[in-house]
Design a protein that fits this description.
504 residues; mainly alpha; globular
Length: 504
């Protein structure tokens, strides 16, 4: 039962559990729910990596000009078949023009499969202003960092881009750079999320300016929206949907969640993830179902679910199945309700993750069955995490020793342990090292603080130092051998390392 429940959300891609798109919006191939599915390193992005490997195999088997020539002839015949099928006054290409365009694409690394898809979608072609203009457009993509796999993904989803002048595509890139203030790899990902490169650059800028002005967005909210576009197709709708559609969808969500205008502005980065859904048809049934299972939401519950928009996109049968499974694992309805109200992401992570975490708490951290359940009820944000991961084991060991707990179980059951455990060792390690230095300087061997994982301002206030003094120490510690050893299981530090300080 556990396996079936954990896979149910991944299998169903439609709002009703089907594979049909509900709102008339063009469909993009669905991906499993996985908060870590994309790496910071764009070359390890799974979708691109697997596609790159597949294309490499295709390339090895199609290196000869004879093979490419036969593919071009087959595609030419396919294109010519549409001549008699297409009505209207669109100018039909000559055989020579078709063949030249097909051969150029194949030579540029576009696969036979992609070219065939382009021809089928456009009922002929492939259409572009000229062979040289099409080649120039592909050159712009390569200059922007598109790999062969990226070009195939882009052309397979939106072949119209080939019909645009290369200068127009360059203008769109320039506008996206200026508007979103993202890195080039992230701009690439945004373009692969939505067909932004087929849009007019002036229209994109006008839409972005309108969204900011209409919803009174702060600079922080604007930056958050831009980052969300990298991994969420729905947020990109702010640039592609009409103003009427955006206004109607967000107004519907505002009415459903009973939000003020100020709350809509603050929560827009999360609400925008739901733009592809009709609020009444697709979000309300889930919203009502959650409250029927978990009890009526208070303002804090409401905010938690809104800021976890993936929970509002899960098929209703999966929501019911997860609730039943959690109730069984936690031993009571009340315990399941308490945990799930505080951890909406648990619905997306599924029963298998919860079951694994309960086993991990018992086997690795010496918790009894009752203690394991209590840990997750007290700290529900731990429920979706991989508690068996080496980095989490390192955090548990460090916090157990630092605060002098008798065992990992005792530390996990201590008040306020949760924020420390989802903080990075880069953060915790630097602060523990700083306190050790203060103990020596002040001759206070018992100096400590419960604000170890709090904001920098709160931490510095607790240990009575200036933020500037701590920041200088942190920079030196982050490049120390101690940091490298302690944080070997963590990702890169979130704090920017200033080379001059690091070398000092």
């Amino acid at each position: 039962m556990i396996v079936a429940l954990s896979c149910a959300w991944q299998v169903s891609s439609g709002w009703d559990g089907s594979t049909q798109r509900p709102s008339g919006v063009g469909w993009w191939p669905s991906r499993p729910v996985d908060c870590n599915r994309f790496s910071k390193n764009r070359r390890s992005w799974p979708a691109r990596q697997s596609e790159q490997q597949r294309l490499a195999v295709i390339g090895e088997s199609a290196t000869s000009s004879d093979v490419r020539g036969s593919a071009a002839q087959r595609l030419l015949q396919l294109s010519q078949q549409y001549d008699s099928q297409v009505a209207g006054d669109r100018r039909q290409l000559t055989s020579e023009e078709r063949l030249a365009r097909i051969e150029m694409l194949l030579q540029q690394g576009v696969t036979e499969e992609t070219v065939q898809h382009m021809i089928e979608r456009s009922k002929g072609g492939p259409y572009m202003q000229s062979v040289s203009e099409g080649a120039a457009m592909l050159s712009v993509l390569r200059e922007r960092g598109f790999l062969v796999a990226d070009m195939n993904l882009l052309l397979g989803s939106s072949s119209k881009i080939l019909g645009r002048p290369a200068s127009n595509v360059s203008d769109v890139f320039a506008v996206l750079d200026d508007m979103l203030q993202l890195s080039r790899p992230d701009i690439l990902r945004v373009c692969l999320q939505q067909s932004l490169l087929t849009r007019d650059s002036d229209t994109l800028r006008q839409r972005w300016d309108w969204v900011q002005a209409h919803y009174g967005l702060s600079k922080k909210a604007v930056a958050s929206l831009a980052k969300s576009m990298v991994y969420n197709r729905g947020v990109c709708g702010l640039l592609t949907y009409s103003q009427e559609t955006i206004t109607a969808r967000l107004s519907g969500l505002q009415h459903l969640f009973k939000l003020s205008d100020a709350e809509v502005s603050k929560l827009l980065p999360y609400l925008a993830e739901l733009l592809e859904a009709d609020p009444e048809r697709h979000i309300r049934p889930r919203w009502d179902l959650y409250q029927s299972l978990l009890g009526e939401f208070d303002p804090a519950d409401k905010r938690r679910f809104i800021t976890s928009p993936v929970s509002l996109q899960i098929p209703k049968p999966t929501i019911r199945d997860v609730f039943r499974g959690v109730k069984q694992l936690m031993g009571s309805t009340a315990a399941a309700q308490d945990m799930l109200r505080l951890s909406p992401k648990s619905f997306a992570c599924g029963i298998e993750r919860l079951a694994t975490n309960l086993r991990t708490l018992h086997q690795l951290y010496d918790c009894s069955s009752q203690q394991a359940q209590k840990v997750l009820v007290r700290n529900p944000l731990l429920a979706p995490l991989m508690l068996e991961a080496p980095k989490f084991q390192c955090r548990v060991a460090a916090m157990t020793e630092w605060y002098g707990h008798a065992s990992p179980a005792a530390m996990l059951l201590a008040p306020n342990c949760g924020p420390r455990l989802w903080a990075s060792m880069w953060k915790l390690g630097a602060r523990m090292a700083f306190i050790r230095r203060l103990r020596l300087e002040r001759a206070e061997p018992d100096l400590n603080t419960s604000a170890l994982a709090n904001s920098t301002e709160q931490f510095c206030r607790a240990v009575e130092v200036s933020e500037e003094e701590y920041a200088a120490f942190e920079q030196r510690w982050l490049v120390s051998p101690e940091a490298a050893e302690l944080c070997r299981h963590e990702g890169p530090p979130r704090v920017k390392i200033i080379e001059a300080l690091g070398a000092a």
